[in-house]
Amino acid sequence: MELFRIELIYKLYYLIDDNKLIFEIIRLTPIQTLIEQCFSSFICQINLFINNEKYKNKKYFSKKNPINELFKFDLNQFNLEKSYLKLHILGDYQNEKCLELGQTVLVINHSMIQSQQYTKIIQIYEDRIDMIIQQQVIKLEFLFSSNFSFFF
Fold it and tell me: How far does Cα 114 stand from its chain's mean position?
């Protein structure tokens, strides 16, 4: 089950002059190829929490397969303490239905003045792993049965 993870590479930094927190998704990559075969694309839902409250009650959604996508949050530097981003990874499934695959929390601190690159590994929910494996078994059964009937 260790292979059923998604690697998130991101930058999270604060622009003092503009009072903006910047979150940039550099790359979002599944570690197991079965994940890519089940989901045509990935989307991120991002919430900013300051002192355990949602910032302006907004949810920010990325584009499909976000690469180098920027999210800007207006705030002042004193709000950075006890703040975090909650990131939900959604997979685009059949008929454009999105399923949440996993989530992570990115803690914000005062050292984020420089634009550094970070890596976070996100574990896929166990029931989603079961669904991914079951989907592959169904595909293999279909492939085997169609090849088998072809020879008769």
Answer: 23
| Gyration radius of the chain's alpha carbons | 19
Q: Which CATH class is domain 5-150?
A: mainly beta
Beta bridge partners of 100: 90
Domain boundaries, the chain: 5-150
Q: How far apart are CA 140 and CA 98, in angstroms?
A: 24
DSSP 7: E
Q: What is the pLDDT of residues 75-89, one digit of tens each?
A: 765 566 777 889 999
Spatial distance between the Cα atoms of 46 and 89, rounded to a whole number of angstroms: 9
pLDDT digits (tens, 9 = 90+) for 52-69: 566 555 678 888 888 888
Global model pTM greater than 0.90: no
How far, in Å, CA of 135 to CA of 39, rounded?
11
Structure tokens at 93: 């499934």
Predicted pLDDT at 44: 92
Place of tokens 């690159």: 117
Number of H helices, E strands in the chain: 2, 9
